[in-house]
């Protein structure tokens, strides 16, 4: 069984999280509201992928980030998503690949994939330790 490793970034601003509405043209999870992220490239570390994907997806550079958890996401491929909390960054957030990015309440129930929903619940569960 091939597992494709991915990175997702939970951008936090007080009690809000930045989510994206994926383009309908995306092969994976088209049109869904998700935590932004992307595939880890061959030879890349998780942190290198985090920096690259944040630049590609949102045009920002993280200055404060922490690993949260890893969860499987079965879609057209089996993904293992490594979630990072990003609480500070430089640059102005702009949607580079998604149709839209928007701040939502942390207890949002609108995310379209189960792994993202679990990751957001984990943020709430352990937030006092982060």
TrEMBL record:
<dbReference type="GO" id="GO:0044716">
    <property type="term" value="F:8-oxo-GDP phosphatase activity"/>
</dbReference>
<keyword id="KW-0227">DNA damage</keyword>
<dbReference type="InterPro" id="IPR015797">
    <property type="entry name" value="NUDIX_hydrolase-like_dom_sf"/>
</dbReference>
<dbReference type="GO" id="GO:0046872">
    <property type="term" value="F:metal ion binding"/>
</dbReference>
<keyword id="KW-0515">Mutator protein</keyword>
<dbReference type="Pfam" id="PF00293">
    <property type="entry name" value="NUDIX"/>
</dbReference>
<dbReference type="GO" id="GO:0006260">
    <property type="term" value="P:DNA replication"/>
</dbReference>
<dbReference type="GO" id="GO:0044715">
    <property type="term" value="F:8-oxo-dGDP phosphatase activity"/>
</dbReference>
<keyword id="KW-0479">Metal-binding</keyword>
<keyword id="KW-0235">DNA replication</keyword>
<keyword id="KW-0460">Magnesium</keyword>
<dbReference type="GO" id="GO:0035539">
    <property type="term" value="F:8-oxo-7,8-dihydrodeoxyguanosine triphosphate pyrophosphatase activity"/>
</dbReference>
<feature type="domain" description="Nudix hydrolase">
    <location>
        <begin position="2"/>
        <end position="126"/>
    </location>
</feature>
<protein>
    <recommendedName>
        <fullName>8-oxo-dGTP diphosphatase</fullName>
        <ecNumber>3.6.1.55</ecNumber>
    </recommendedName>
</protein>
<dbReference type="GO" id="GO:0006281">
    <property type="term" value="P:DNA repair"/>
</dbReference>
<dbReference type="InterPro" id="IPR047127">
    <property type="entry name" value="MutT-like"/>
</dbReference>
<dbReference type="GO" id="GO:0008413">
    <property type="term" value="F:8-oxo-7,8-dihydroguanosine triphosphate pyrophosphatase activity"/>
</dbReference>
<keyword id="KW-0234">DNA repair</keyword>
<keyword id="KW-0378">Hydrolase</keyword>
<comment type="similarity">
    <text>Belongs to the Nudix hydrolase family.</text>
</comment>
<dbReference type="InterPro" id="IPR020084">
    <property type="entry name" value="NUDIX_hydrolase_CS"/>
</dbReference>
<dbReference type="InterPro" id="IPR000086">
    <property type="entry name" value="NUDIX_hydrolase_dom"/>
</dbReference>
